[in-house]
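Here is the promised in-class demo. Please do not try to memorize the tokens; focus on the logic of going from shape to residues.
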């Protein structure tokens, strides 16, 4: 079968099985085929669509496609995901970086000076995407990134090395447990924030992602509570905390912060206009 026909067939199967929109299905079919062909460009694929796959290629494409049709996320099948202009390795040990989280990076960068040294902490770094994006855009900052999971830290270390990050320190810590006496100008986190019984955990990509990176108690706020309680002791005077949270949590997180004395509490919105991030200034100032 020629590439063109193969793509059309795969697109139809993706629409049928996963209820993807036409365009998304077309993009995914191309991504899977490009990966099968050793990472050829989209332009190559389009200009060679009269060619056929070898039997070995055809078999590995079908294997990849059937895993996708059973719901496995594209990012895990390809082993990579683009985030904030860079491509990260991802494995099922880490949450897949999402466009929503670029809002957190943007908001953090607005609080980190480009022209002088500062100290930044990323809690629960996973693939390292947030920490590495910040480190890349603020070469004068020293970024510390921690995670409870050793497996996640391996992925983050691989990404840091691959992307040439040299202002990043990675180490194992369950939230603040391993951070003796360190203080930071900016603390960021995309913690787990989905409520334990939320049906979304049984849908789409989330089914295949680490549940410990997604779910956080009956209201989804257990980890955010822990972070809010402990963060002031790790902030320098004038320091900021920025937290990503669910689309339905901005008011709750803001009132938790205001009750605990955080200053200048506000939100940052994602591309869809949803208040995805809540930030505040050191309550001990
Ligand atoms: N944004 C993710 C989702 O709901 C959740 C990520 C998280 O819990 N930090 O799809």
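The designed amino acids, position by position:
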């Amino acid at each position: 079968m020629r590439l063109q026909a193969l793509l059309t067939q795969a697109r139809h199967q993706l629409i049928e099985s996963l209820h993807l929109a036409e365009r998304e299905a077309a993009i995914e079919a191309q991504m899977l085929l490009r990966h099968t062909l050793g990472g050829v460009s989209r332009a190559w694929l389009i200009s060679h669509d009269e060619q056929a796959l070898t039997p070995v290629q055809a078999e590995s494409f079908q294997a990849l496609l059937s895993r996708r049709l059973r719901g496995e996320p594209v990012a895990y099948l390809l082993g990579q995901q683009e985030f904030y202009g860079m491509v990260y390795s991802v494995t099922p040990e880490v949450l897949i970086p999402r466009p929503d989280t670029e809002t957190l990076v943007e908001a953090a960068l607005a609080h980190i000076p480009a022209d002088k040294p500062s100290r930044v902490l990323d809690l629960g770094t996973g693939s390292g995407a947030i920490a590495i994006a910040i480190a890349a855009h603020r070469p004068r900052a020293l970024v510390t990134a921690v995670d409870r999971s050793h497996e996640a830290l391996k992925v983050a270390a691989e990404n840091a090395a691959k992307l040439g990050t040299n202002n990043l320190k990675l180490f194992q810590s369950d939230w603040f447990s391993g951070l003796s006496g360190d203080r930071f100008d900016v603390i960021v986190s995309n913690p787990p924030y989905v409520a334990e019984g939320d049906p979304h955990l049984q849908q789409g990509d989330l089914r295949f992602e680490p549940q410990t990176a997604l779910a956080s108690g009956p209201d989804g706020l257990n980890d955010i509570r822990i972070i809010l309680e402990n963060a002031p002791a790790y902030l320098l005077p004038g320091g900021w905390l920025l937290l990503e949270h669910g689309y339905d949590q901005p008011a709750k997180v803001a009132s938790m912060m205001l009750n605990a004395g955080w200053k200048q509490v506000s939100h940052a919105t994602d591309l869809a206009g949803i208040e995805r991030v809540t930030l505040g200034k050191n309550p001990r100032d």
